[in-house]
């Protein structure tokens, strides 16, 4: 078993309030969660209007599958018009038996 994590630092250029930001983040995270069957959460920049960071986690048996799923998530986020990716960081974790 392994856990794959990807952190996305995002810019939300069209936001003028925290309410607008929450709507964009909620729409994006719900779409990722339902399309890819992964865990998603906002993990940083909670008080900034035009910035956010989300974390995506997938648990699987094979590294190839985890990387494939998170690569598809990254492509999905790139195509989501309301946000711009500043940075994406992928890490794979193998829990000790």
Characterization of this structure:
The protein is an alpha+beta fold and 97 residues long. It has helices at 18-36, 63-79; strands at residues 2-11, 39-44, 51-60, 84-93. A 4-stranded antiparallel β-sheet has the order 2-3-1-4, with helices on one face. The N and C termini lie close together (9 Å). It has a single domain, classed as Alpha-Beta Plaits (2-Layer Sandwich). A hairpin with a 6-residue loop joins β2 (39-44) and β3 (51-60). The mean pLDDT is 92.
Overall radius of gyration: 14 Å
Spell the H/E element sequence: EHEEHE
Which range does the strand content fall in? 35-45%
CATH topology description: Alpha-Beta Plaits
| Overall pLDDT score | 92
Structural class: alpha+beta
Number of domains: 1
The geometry reads as elongated
Helix content: 25-40%
State the total count of DSSP E strands: 4
Strand order of the largest sheet: 2-3-1-4
């Amino acid at each position: 078993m392994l856990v794959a994590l990807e952190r996305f630092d995002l810019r939300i250029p069209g936001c003028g309030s925290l309410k607008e930001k929450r709507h964009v983040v909620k729409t994006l995270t719900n779409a990722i969660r339902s399309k890819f069957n992964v865990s998603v959460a906002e993990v940083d920049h909670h008080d900034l209007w035009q910035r956010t960071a989300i974390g995506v986690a997938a648990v699987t048996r094979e590294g190839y599958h985890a990387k494939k799923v998170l690569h598809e998530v990254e492509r999905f986020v790139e195509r989501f018009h309301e946000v711009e990716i500043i940075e994406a960081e992928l890490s794979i974790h193998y829990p000790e038996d």
